[in-house]
């Protein structure tokens, strides 16, 4: 198993994208943007369908392009209309999914590919996907090294960040672009229906047992890596779908951290009494 090239690519992608999604998830959950990532992932269906219609054997580029267009449309509608954010997201999500299904219904030769993108197949990841994942990994971790303090302040209090001299609009746009890229590239890992879980669940697990933002970030990275790699390793020998296997591994970690967190909380409360 370990010597197979496809397994090596799968584990490498899991090591790259699992921690990336988990790290972004810390700020996604804190800023209540989980529905945003869900909107982008579902909108990617139309990008995939466009890629196949245009003759792409690998629709990664159209997928990313369409996801960025949807993210841009979301920001524009938020700034130029009086619609609530969740209304805009629901509008774009339902419209993109409907458009994608209509186009996919015309592509009878790609029904198998649709299943792969809906539920994920990390074992089928290509060298091009791996290269893009590596670029995203470096972009996020190097970028966050320079903007972590500003992003943390923005997450905690946007008005205070603005008063402190942070370019709030530029930082918000940059975060949205990076988040969109992460969601689009992680679709091969988990699938359209499940990709948001890798951002939300490791962060939630880390919050169960962490007492500071630093601890939450470090534990999110660990749990994201464990979930993505563990799910991949379990899926192959048991012949399970890799996306759901990764999500269920994340759920298991969440349950364990919830139990551990409650035990430590009860002990500390008894000690204070």
Core attributes:
single chain, mainly alpha, ABC transporter involved in vitamin B12 uptake, BtuC, 11 helices
Helix content: over 70%
CATH T-level fold name of the domain at 5-193: ABC transporter involved in vitamin B12 uptake, BtuC
- Total helical segments: 11
The N- to C-terminal Cα distance equals 53 Å
The whole-number mean of residue pLDDT values reads 84
Radius of gyration from CA coordinates: 19 Å
CATH superfamily of the domain at 5-193: ABC transporter involved in vitamin B12 uptake, BtuC
Mind telling me the CATH class of the domain at 5-193?
Mainly Alpha
As residue ranges, the low-confidence spans are none
Number of strands: 0
What is the architecture of the domain at 5-193 at the second tier of CATH?
A: Orthogonal Bundle
Question: Secondary-structure map with pairings?
Answer:
Layout: H1 5-30, H2 34-53, H3 60-80, H4 85-104, H5 111-119, H6 127-156, H7 158-163, H8 168-190, H9 197-209, H10 213-238, H11 242-272
Helix pairs in contact: 1-6, 1-8, 1-9, 1-10, 2-3, 2-4, 2-8, 3-4, 3-8, 6-8, 9-10, 9-11, 10-11
């Amino acid at each position: 198993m370990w010597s197979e090239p496809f397994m090596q690519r799968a584990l490498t992608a899991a090591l790259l994208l699992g921690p990336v999604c988990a790290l972004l998830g810390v700020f996604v959950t804190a800023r209540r943007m989980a529905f945003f990532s869900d909107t982008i992932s579902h909108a990617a269906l139309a990008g995939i369908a466009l890629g196949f219609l245009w003759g792409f054997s690998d629709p990664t580029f159209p997928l990313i392009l369409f996801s960025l267009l949807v993210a841009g449309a979301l920001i524009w509608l938020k700034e130029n209309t009086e619609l609530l954010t969740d209304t805009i997201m629901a509008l774009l999500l339902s419209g993109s999914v409907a458009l994608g299904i209509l186009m996919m219904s015309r592509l009878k030769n790609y029904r198998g590919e649709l299943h792969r993108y809906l539920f994920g197949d990390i074992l089928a990841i290509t060298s091009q996907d791996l290269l893009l994942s590596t670029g995203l990994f470096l972009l996020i971790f190097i970028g966050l090294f320079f903007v972590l303090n500003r992003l943390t302040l923005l997450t905690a209090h946007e008005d205070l960040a603005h008063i402190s001299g942070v370019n709030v609009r530029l930082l918000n746009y940059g975060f949205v672009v990076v988040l969109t890229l992460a969601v689009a590239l992680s679709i091969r890992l988990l699938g359209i229906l499940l990709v948001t879980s890798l951002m939300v669940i490791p962060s939630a697990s880390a919050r169960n047992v962490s007492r500071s933002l630093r601890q939450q970030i470090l534990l999110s990275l660990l749990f994201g890596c464990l979930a993505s790699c563990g799910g991949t390793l379990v899926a192959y020998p048991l012949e399970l779908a890799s996306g759901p296997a990764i999500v269920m591994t994340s759920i298991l970690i969440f349950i364990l951290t919830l139990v551990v967190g409650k035990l430590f909380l009860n002990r500390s409360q008894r000690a204070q009494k």
